[in-house]
Design goal:
The complex is a heterotrimer. Chain A has 19 helices and 32 strands. By secondary structure, chain A is α+β, with helices and mostly antiparallel strands. Chain B has two domains: 76 residues, Ubiquitin-like (UB roll) (Roll), CATH 3.10.20; 72 residues, [2Fe-2S]-binding domain (DNA polymerase, domain 1, Orthogonal Bundle). Chain B is built from five helices and five strands, in the order ββαβββαααα. Classes of the chains: A alpha+beta, B alpha+beta, C alpha+beta.
């Protein structure tokens, strides 16, 4: 019997609020007596600070206080390491240099905070920032990755030689042997440049300290409210539960909102205590480009060793990864690159070496894809170079080397961002590829349409790539499910929401177990006052990990409902069913009790509860996966390039995707499409550019270009495969980043194919019309 | 005269009189002075469209209008479009087509689309895409928004009959 | 990103505005549509001490057809009003063709025809279009006025002959000869975003089908919009054929423009795009001129 709510395309619970503007985002929150913060930020990317004179700013009418590093005393110190170093990987080198909350003697990136102004309005605070007199001596800047590791390069941190933040080497099999016995070894240098998360809503924080109750309430646009709470409490010497972090509706996360040690997170709680007034800080767009984290900035020296029939013997990839001026988020992004390079293919020998490098640029932390697109890009480019060399069809060389399904669970021998060995749990890579080829009409296009169009002078090309997406990693998440006296069910979990539909998908899971309508399940996410154990929303793990925790809690509640219901209705549990908000006796329509009434009865005010029985119909559930579940798929794309302007139109884009069991197909498609739009951006529109002085050249939407509606593919076809994950009871895998991961690889392959006659080879991303013109002209 | 100026603005049919600094942006005026928070601020340089409102019936970027410029004018925001229990047909279509995820850009889209549908009651998909090109969305990839507008055009034409 | 404080004036008439501008001199800045000025102010890259807001002066909003033909457009007429005007479509279709590329509808609902021309963005469309159509600009100041032909109007990037105490009141577009076709072509990274090259062509044919008059304006590839001398040299009195267009395009893109290299495109890319767009633009304008019969 099909499920009533689970797996159904249920419309979202949260939409009416969002559509009518009733949903509260952080800047919609106003507290009595609230003050506003603004940061003065460094223009220089590297400089020695001689002095920051705030005396004039302090006198500015409407200014309540101005602080520099000196004012924070012992509170001033480098922040915590949000992700630990990969000491689990033998022989790894890691130099932890965590975020400085506010610059003291030195600035290391353009945008680093120098002072914070607290005033009656943001307008006044910005005025007062202009009264601050800063005396800085610019120092040499290093932005180029290859130059940064050379001897004699300017040092971002004086005590880290060659700016080497980390050196991590992993190998499976024996690549040297593989290369020796290969017929062909192809080497390429592959460049992937930086992109921003650029959520529509910028970051924000409101801190309210009550000096009567000694409790602090923080509203934050955070993807990690619990770690944020713990971090703030720890810094202030408070109990964790003296600090409550509440996430309002958040206007998109995409990764950068996971950070918990930026200037606002660290300083505003302290200031709120000192001033005893609520403090609000809302980031503006320019700040977001300068001083919120971004990602993708790698140079790969990669090689692939093959037999002449196209069988891969080994891949070796040594790469430089830019971590920016600090490395608070550990090795997460480059480890994702390492684990996603060869994950679709059978590659017996694989070497992946990460050289993480400090530069005078903003810190790199995950942005949708989080290192995975880079890994996929490297492998897919190597395969295309190999196909060209061996005169093989690009689809054939891939099909030949796909990891077969009978190898699952496949132990990769490579440790990933969650510090456990990557294991591919399930998948049907050959099936994905076949479906993608069918949906895009590959044979028909290559044999008939493309030759015809080319004869008419059109530059049309097709690309086909494969990808995996490591998702749903640990450590764990938890949830509490409570049946209310009103007959509705409350569900609280620690992760926060940025538009993924948590308020609906978790309700679907609970509704299915407890027989109430999805609309009658109230979901609370990201409020540590309601649930305070968990890690956060990242790595496409929310639905699967928190969803499984919700499921685990819901089935416990279901057991309690059945147990008490059986007692109250005086029938065996097997004769009960939960539906329509009632506990019913099967086939006896007049014998039932509303679940809310049962909940009241479960909390007796007299008598006793039996040993081992908890009051109420409430339970907490947790779930910690042994390793992440691997989503996977294939993408195919047909593009046309304008021969004068080099504008690229994507005529057709096919994404075949497998995330196991799907909670809500409507929301799933939304996630894939959203990821695709970021992938399109990463391919041809977006590039965060730094000049040689470390200045961001395009810190606005005028020059940092995000795809518009007319930039999207003319036709998008989504296909699905389903290989349920054996790792959790519902068989789910994550999907949030799927659309973003394969897109640049597929785009570049298709564009190369459009210029097949000109025989260009592109080993970089992102592209733009001018770059493409030069590839063709200079080939 | 950077001294505060008294202004009279009609917003969603209600008259407001306030005294404001000349430099106060209309977006901030609506959100903080009038506490009508459906209008969101994404960029403050006229590129993202999240702050789109109607001024005398046409869509404008409220971050590029000073509140004093709205004196004696009529503004409409998404706060006045519908209610949670009685959604405007366009809002209803957005919900049915999953045309919003985080919802931050959504009010700006709604206010861009309302005058578009008024002037183009039977748009093609191509026309819809061009009409929403000035609104950025980072979550949805736009496909479902186009579907929602198409659906709403049919519903609203039906209602108009 | 909040703007710095400024003094604000909202004159209700042209006369009042001119008085105010005379008073303020270099401290005053005209606020028209605000779609270029306000973002700059929000970034605090522009910090005028005082704004003279012309938006309440409705006498500056009009599209008239003067007795001698052509159009007279009030400087504060909204871009979107011009875009959708049937009379502009009839008499200056080049303007209507370019309009959908200027930002987005929300920008065009506030942006003004005169404001864009006075702003003189080298990458702007309307400055180049006004040059292609040989506009005449009526500039007022307290107590006097002057007419400036558009060929003398643009001095450099964001610089025109308008003095601090003056304002642009009207743009007159002279009538086009009967057998005239026009065409606007551009390349930009996204629809509505800044162009890397844009071409406006106006081709007028005589009764024998030869070119009586031609103007090719190149935008975004120099300090101001540029008129191609090569187009006139090569085409006037000649058959408008593709070889001629290619010759013009090559000469213009190689010798008549001064494109820059920036984060979006190289100068070389801009040259080759300009070349391709000139050929397309001239071909389309010619076809349209022929279609007008005579």
């Amino acid at each position: 019997m099909a499920e009533k709510y689970f797996k159904q395309p249920i419309l979202r619970n949260e939409d009416p609020r969002l559509l009518t503007g009733k949903a509260k985002f952080i800047d919609d929150i106003t507290l009595p007596g609230m003050l506003h913060a603004a940061f003065l930020r460094s223009d220089f990317a590297s400089a020695k600070i001689n002095s920051v004179d705030v005396s004039a700013a302090r006198k500015h009418p409407g200014v309540v206080a101005v602080y520099t590093a000196a004012d924070f005393g012992d509170y001033w110190k480098p922040g915590p390491l949000q992700v630990p170093p990969p000491s689990v990987i033998k022989g790894s080198l890691f130099n932890a240099r965590t975020l400085i909350p506010i610059a003291k003697d030195r600035v290391r990136f353009s945008g680093e905070p120098l002072a914070v102004v607290i005033a009656e309005s943001r307008y006044i605070a910005e005025d007062a920032c202009e009264d601050i007199v800063v005396d800085m001596e610019p120092l040499p800047v290093v932005t180029d990755l290859e130059k940064a590791i050379e001897d004699g390069s300017p040092l971002v941190h004086d005590d880290v030689p060659n700016n080497l933040a980390a050196d991590v080497y992993q190998e499976r099999g024996n690549y040297a042997e593989a290369a020796k016995y290969a017929d062909v070894v192809i080497k390429r240098k592959i460049l992937i440049d930086r992109c921003a998360g650029a959520a529509m809503e910028n970051r924000g924080l409101i801190v309210d300290y009550d000096d009567r109750t000694h409790n602090m309430t923080v509203w934050a646009t955070s993807q990690a409210p619990i770690p944020l709470r713990n971090s703030i409490a720890g810094r202030l010497g408070m109990f964790e539960n003296q600090v409550r972090v509440i996430t309002p509706f958040i206007g998109g996360g995409f990764g950068p909102k996971i950070m918990t040690s930026q200037a606002d997170d660290v300083l505003l709680p302290i200031i709120a205590m000192w001033l005893n007034r609520p403090i609000k800080w809302i980031e503006d767009r320019r700040e977001n480009f300068l001083a919120t984290t971004s990602e993708r900035d790698q140079i790969h020296f990669a090689e692939i060793a093959l037999k002449k029939d196209g069988t891969i013997l080994g891949v070796k990839d040594v790469f430089l990864h830019d971590t920016g001026a600090y490395d608070p988020y550990g090795m997460t992004v480059p480890l994702n690159t390492s684990t996603h390079t060869v994950s679709n293919y059978e590659v017996p020998a694989f070497v992946t070496q990460i050289k993480m490098v400090f530069t005078n640029k903003m810190v790199v932390t995950p942005v949708r894809g989080a290192g995975r697109p880079e890994g996929v890009f490297v492998m897919e480019r190597l395969l295309d170079a190999a196909a060209r060399e061996l005169k093989m069809n690009p689809v054939e060389i891939r099909r030949k080397n796909l990891l077969p399904s009978n190898k699952y669970p496949y132990k990769s021998g490579i440790i990933g961002q969650d510090f456990v060995e990557g294991v591919l749990d399930s998948g049907d890579f050959a099936g994905n590829l076949k479906k993608a080829l069918d949906l895009v009409g590959y044979d028909e296009f290559v044999k008939t349409e493309q030759p015809k169009l080319r004869a008419a002078g059109k530059k049309v090309g097709i690309g086909v790539v494969n990808f995996t997406e490591g998702t749903a990693v640990g450590p764990y998440e938890g949830a509490k499910v409570t049946v209310g006296g009103n007959g509705k069910v409350n569900t609280a979990t620690g992760i926060s929401s940025q538009g993924q539909g948590h308020f609906t998908i978790f309700a679907q899971i609970v509704a299915e177990q407890l027989g109430v309508d999805v609309k009658d399940v109230n979901v609370i996410t990201g409020d540590t006052g309601h649930f305070h154990w968990g890690a956060g929303t990242f790595a496409s793990r929310g639905a699967t990990v928190a969803g499984t925790a919700v499921y685990n809690a819901a089935i416990k509640v279901r057991e309690k409902v059945l147990k008490l219901g059986a007692k109250v209705l005086e029938v065996p549990e097997s004769e009960l069913e939960l539906a329509d908000g009632l506990v019913k006796v099967k086939n006896k329509p007049d014998k039932s009790i509303p679940i809310g009434q049962l909940a009241v009865m479960a909390n007796p005010m007299r008598g006793t509860i039996e040993p081992g029985v908890e009051p109420g119909l409430e339970a907490v559930g947790y779930y910690g996966p042994p390793y992440g579940a691997t989503g996977n798929g294939s993408m195919a794309m047909i593009v046309e390039v304008d021969p004068v302007t080099y504008a690229v139109k994507i005529h057709k884009c096919v994404i075949v995707h497998d995330c196991g069991t799907v909670i809500n197909p409507l929301l799933l498609e939304g996630q894939v499409m959203g990821g695709l739009s970021m992938g399109v951006g990463n391919s041809f529109y977006e590039q965060l550019l730094y000049d040689e002085n470390g200045q961001v050249m395009n810190a606005s939407f005028m020059d940092y270009l995000i795809p518009q509606a007319t930039d999207m593919p003319e036709e998008v076809i989504l296909g699905h495969n389903s290989s349920p994950s054996p790792l959790n009871p519902l068989g789910m895998k994550g999907v949030g980043e799927a659309g973003a991961i394969p897109t640049p690889s597929c785009f570049v392959q298709a564009v190369e194919n459009a210029f097949e006659a000109e025989n260009i080879e592109i080993m970089e991303t992102p592209l733009n019309p001018s770059k493409l013109f030069h590839y063709v002209k200079d080939h | 005269m950077s001294a505060p100026i008294k202004i009279k603005v009609k917003v969603n049919g209600v008259d407001y009189e306030r005294t404001v600094e000349p430099r106060l942006l209309l977006s901030d005026f609506l959100r903080h002075d009038l506490e009508l928070t459906s209008t969101h601020v994404g960029c403050e340089h006229g590129m993202c469209g999240a702050c789109t409102v109607l001024m005398d019936g046409v869509a404008v970027r409220s971050c590029l209008v000073f509140a004093v410029q709205a004196n004696e004018h009529a503004i409409e925001t998404a706060d006045g479009l519908g209610t949670e229990t009685a959604l405007h047909p366009l809002q209803q279509a957005f919900m049915e087509e999953h045309a919003l995820q985080c919802g931050f850009c959504t009010p700006g889209f709604l206010m861009s689309i309302i005058p578009f549908l008024r002037d183009n009651p039977r748009p093609t998909d191509e026309q819809i895409r061009e009409a929403i090109d000035g609104n950025l969305c980072r979550c949805t990839g736009y496909e479902n928004i186009v579907r929602a507008v198409k659906k709403a055009s049919v519903t609203m034409a039906g209602k108009a009959k | 990103m909040k703007p710095a404080a400024f003094d604000y004036y909202a004159p209700a008439s042209v006369e009042e505005a001119l008085d105010r501008l005379a008073e303020l001199g270099y401290n005053g800045k005209v606020l028209a549509g605000g779609q270029s000025l306000t973002p700059a102010m929000n970034f605090r890259m522009a910090r005028p001490a005082a704004l003279v807001d012309l938006n309440a002066i409705h006498e500056l909003e009009y599209i008239k057809t003067p007795p001698e033909g052509g159009l007279a457009i009030g400087s504060m007429t909204r871009d979107s009003v011009v875009e959708h005007s049937p009379v502009v479509l009839e008499k200056a279709p080049l303007v209507v063709e370019a309009m959908p590329n200027i930002g987005h509808p929300q920008i065009r609902n506030r942006g003004t025809f005169g404001g864009a021309i006075a702003h003189a963005d080298p990458a702007g469309q309307l400055p180049g279009i006004s040059l292609a159509l040989r506009a005449n600009l009526h500039i007022l100041k307290k107590g006097s006025d002057r007419w400036v032909p558009v060929d003398e109007f643009f001095l450099g990037p964001f610089m025109t002959v308008i003095e601090p105490d003056e304002m642009l009141a009207e743009v007159v577009l002279p009538p086009l000869p009967t057998r005239t076709g026009t065409s606007y072509k551009q390349v930009s990274r996204q629809r509505g975003s800044a162009t890397q090259s844009a071409i406006a062509s106006v081709v007028s044919l005589d009764e024998k089908g030869k070119v009586a008059n031609v103007r090719v304006v190149m935008m975004s590839v120099g300090a101001t919009p540029l008129v191609s001398a090569a187009a006139e040299e090569i085409l006037i009195g000649q058959e408008p054929v593709e070889e001629a267009f290619k010759e013009i395009a090559t000469k213009a893109s190689e010798t008549e423009i001064d494109p820059s290299t920036d984060m979006h495109a190289t100068a070389e890319y801009r040259r080759q795009a300009t070349r391709g767009l000139i050929i397309q633009s001239l071909a389309t304008a010619t076809a349209r001129a022929k279609g007008k019969g005579g």
